[in-house]
Amino acid sequence: MHMFFIYVSVILSVIIFIPLYRVVTGPTIYDRVLCSGSIATSSMVLILMVGVIFNRIDMFIDIAMAYSCLNFIGVIVFAKYLGTLGSRRKNGT
Amino acid sequence: MVLKDILSIIFISLGAFFMFIGSLGLIRLPDFYSRAHATGKVDTLAIILVIFGLVIYEGFSVNSAKLIIIITFVALTNPTATNALARAAYRFRLRPWFKKDKSKKIKKKMNWEIEIVLFICLLIAAFVSLYVKNLLTAVITLSVFSFFTALIYIAMGAIDVGFTEAVVGAGVTGVLLIITIYRTSRRSSD
After folding, report:
1. What tens digit of pLDDT does each residue of A23-64 get?
2. Interface of A with B in 12-71 (CB under 8 A)
3. What is the pLDDT of residues B34-65, one digit of tens each?
4. Which of A13, A38, A72 is the closest to B118 by Cβ?
5. Secondary structure (DSSP) of chain B
6. Residue A18: closest CA among chain B residues belongs to which residue?
7. Among all residues of chain A, which has the CA nearest to that of B88?
């Protein structure tokens, strides 16, 4: 069971590698924000896996919770900023 | 092997599979609006499955209650954030994709240890955030960089340091830089 969690976390860290391609070569800024959010959510799961491996999941859960909150706040701030940019552009200024 | 372990293995494997599908969708799908489906639906399902497997593994305790709270939070916030982003893109009049063929090949690297993969990601994010021209892209890659730094700290076992790095580097600095970009005027347009 312990080895299973180690394998899953290795697979997850490879999976985190994949959206980085889109962060680097994303055609628009929205793709980059989207993929950074995806990386953050995947890394939250990776934190939980590491917590299970270390047998200290009670400590890691709080960190994962804060991580997901931070990710949410970051994406919302980006969306807000880009949305005001869009409304500014609509008014022609 | 108890039934509990088998069930949690099934759920976590399904979740990892869906996470892989979601990441693949982020690369393969043609435009932003369709990529939003990949992260808004598939990733949410994957996280719910993985954490549910962990809940089964943990059994009936305080930790599994917290994990269920995380499930609820992710199920609420992940589609909300994606929706907010797609709405901003629609307001900005980003054009949807229409049919036109282009195919890209992706290379996958298979490494045997977590830290090496994370370290490569870290280096790539660092160089991208140094050499990119667009300011917003630089901010995003910087926050990705500090996410990876925090993950490396956590994978090495220093969870409190990783937690501080995640809070300061990814959260506060990113928000601060975005507010700075928003308040100051820019000469280039993206």
Report:
1. 888 778 888 888 888 888 888 888 888 888 888 888 888 888
2. 12-24, 28-48, 50, 52, 54, 56-71
3. 888 888 888 888 989 999 888 888 888 888 88
4. A13
5. --HHHHHHHHHHHHHHHHHHHHHHHHHHSSSHHHHHHIIIIIHHHHHHHHHHHHHHHH-SSHHHHHHHHHHHHHHHHHHHHHHHHHHHHHHTTPPPP-S------------S-HHHHHHHHHHHHHHHHHH---HHHHHHHHHHHHHHHHHHHHHHT-HHHHHHHIIIIIIIIHHHHHHHHHHS--SS--
6. B23
7. A83
